[in-house]
Structures are given as structure tokens and as C-alpha cells.
Amino acid sequence: MGGGNFVAEIDKILVRNMKLSRDLLMLVSIIFFIGCETETEYIWNDENRISEYATWIDNTICRQTVDNLDFMFQASAYRDSLLCGGDVNAVIKRQFSNPHLKPPKVNELGEICWFETQAEHYITHNGISLDEDGSLWVAYGKMQRFWDAHQQPVEEYCQWAVSRENGVYTLSGGMIHNGVFNEFFTMSNFLDMHFTTSVAEVMVCTDIDNNIYETKQTLRYSFNGDIMAVASGKVDYDRLPRPDVYMTLDGVTGHNTKEYIEGIPVFGSVYFDEGTTTATLSNGTDSWRIVIDYAQGGYNYSRL
To answer: Quick one: which of 193, 188, 221, 206 has its CA closest to 261?
Structure first.
């Protein structure tokens, strides 16, 4: 074979191999694309994912709403005790004794004006106790991000308010929520959210060395209304878009049932034992609904 023919044959082989490589690359790309699309669809509809979202709604949004309200109402109770010469230390012990949280701050009148839960909250009011009609208490929240989350702000801010008329409370504005140092924050907005309260009792350990327990009074809430929840950063654990959630609470009733040992909460308890939450979840392309049915000892959920 002459040199020219040899080069020509080599050129033909290279061209043929390039075409095969290009075709193979296209085939692999198609398979990869279909595989990713199928995997994404599978994850979005996977039963484990549905369970995770149900837990997110119950634990991160609804329970933390109760926790924040507890601090607001106890700040009002502290003010009531100041005005009537009551035992303000009892309020501190009941609500603000967790050594893992910073102690509350007071203003020039001696009233609690700042407290820490998942976020820091500065509070103002119109001079009326939350136990009375006409009251309006406002919280300005700020939470600093625990992780260096990509393209997300270092701090998130919120504002929420509690008012009372005819014995019924209205919860307006929105709260910041966070799980156990989650990268994303959840921002909830309360839409026509109303609730009533009653008194509940839980047992707490005030002296673990001597095994001393006391009864602690807390508030039990019954919610009716809508919440729109959005995950800041819109990315969950598997790097998929976190869905927006629109939920309707119908008679969802419960209270903070966590046991406390010398002010430190023991997690894992069930808050709600009545009512249902209907939630629509949307990932921007598709949406579906679940119903969380609360019953004694926990909740069940089903997909609609």
C-alpha cells in the first residue's frame, strides 16, 4: 500500500470512528437525560419523599409556630406579672430557662422585648395583654444561616403579629423556620389564620439529681386557616427544588408536649392530636396534594 493510500485509509477510519464516537456520545447523553429525568420524577413521587414532606409540614412549620407563640404569650404573661406584682421569676422558669438559649432582654419598663427561639425576635405591643381583646403584639424576627449556603443571604428576616378580638386570635405575617441546622430556611406566610387557646399541663423535671418533677402549665392551640410556605434557597437534601406548600389547617389542635429536664427540651414528642391539614405541594412543574390527619398519639397522611 502506498503512502498516499495509507493516509487516505487512516483518514477514513478516523472519520468513521469520529462519527461512531459522536453517535455514541449522543446516545449516552440521551440515556443520561432520560435517566436523570426519570430519577427526578421518581424522587419527586417517591413514598419516602412524601413522608419527608409530611414531617417537614408537621415538625418544621406547625410545631415551630406553636413554639414561637409560646414565647410571645409568656412574654405577655411576664408583663402581666410585672403590672400586678406577680411572680415574674415563675414565668422565666416556665418558659425562658433553657440554658441552650440566650436569656430574654428587657426594655426600660422591665418588660421582655427580645427572646430567642430558632430565630431572634424583637417584640412590641399596643399596651394590652394578650389575654384581653384589642391586643396587638408584633414580633420582628431574624435568623442567621448556619451554613455557607450557595447564593443565599447570610440572614433572613420576618415579621409576624398576634391580635385578639372576641376571644379569637389572628396570626398574621410570616415566620422563619428551620430544622436541625438545615441549609435551607422555610418562610411561612399566614393567610386568614385564626386560633383559640386553652390551658394544658405537662410534667417537667426541675432537678434531675433528686428526681424532682413539677407540673408546668402551657397553652393549647386550635388553628383554622391557611399557610403558604416557601423554602428559602429552594434546594433540599438531594439538590432538588424544594416545593412550595399551600396548606389549610382545619381544627388542628395541640400544644408543646416536650418533656423538659432542667429547662432543656427532650425532642421527639407529638404536638397535635386533633384536626386535619390539607397541603398542596408544587415543584414549579408538577403538583400534588396530601392530607395529614391528626389523631391521638401521632398523625397519618395520605396522598390525594
So the answer is: 206
Q: 248, 226 in Cβ contact below 8 A?
A: yes
Question: What's the average pLDDT block by block, 10 residues per block, for the chain (304 residues)?
Answer: 43 43 42 41 66 88 96 98 94 91 95 93 98 98 78 85 98 89 83 97 85 89 96 60 89 93 82 95 85 85 87
Q: Note whether 194 and 224 are within 8 A (CB).
A: yes
d(CA 16, CA 18) in angstroms, rounded, equals: 5
Given a contact cutoff of 8 angstroms between Cβ atoms, the answer to whether 301 and 291 are in contact is yes
Which residues lie below 8 Å from residue 100, measured CB to CB, with a gap of 6+?
264
CB 218 within 8 A of CB 200: yes
Q: Taking the chain, what is the end-to-end CA distance rounded to the nearest angstrom?
A: 74
Compute the distance between CA of residue 137 and CA of residue 113 in angstroms, rounded to an integer: 11
Whose grid coordinates read 418544621?
Answer: 60
- Give 76-83's long-range contacts (Cβ < 8 A, gap of 24+): 76/125, 76/129, 76/130, 76/131, 76/135, 76/137, 78/104, 78/111, 78/112, 79/111, 79/112, 79/125, 79/129, 80/129, 80/131, 82/109, 82/110, 82/111
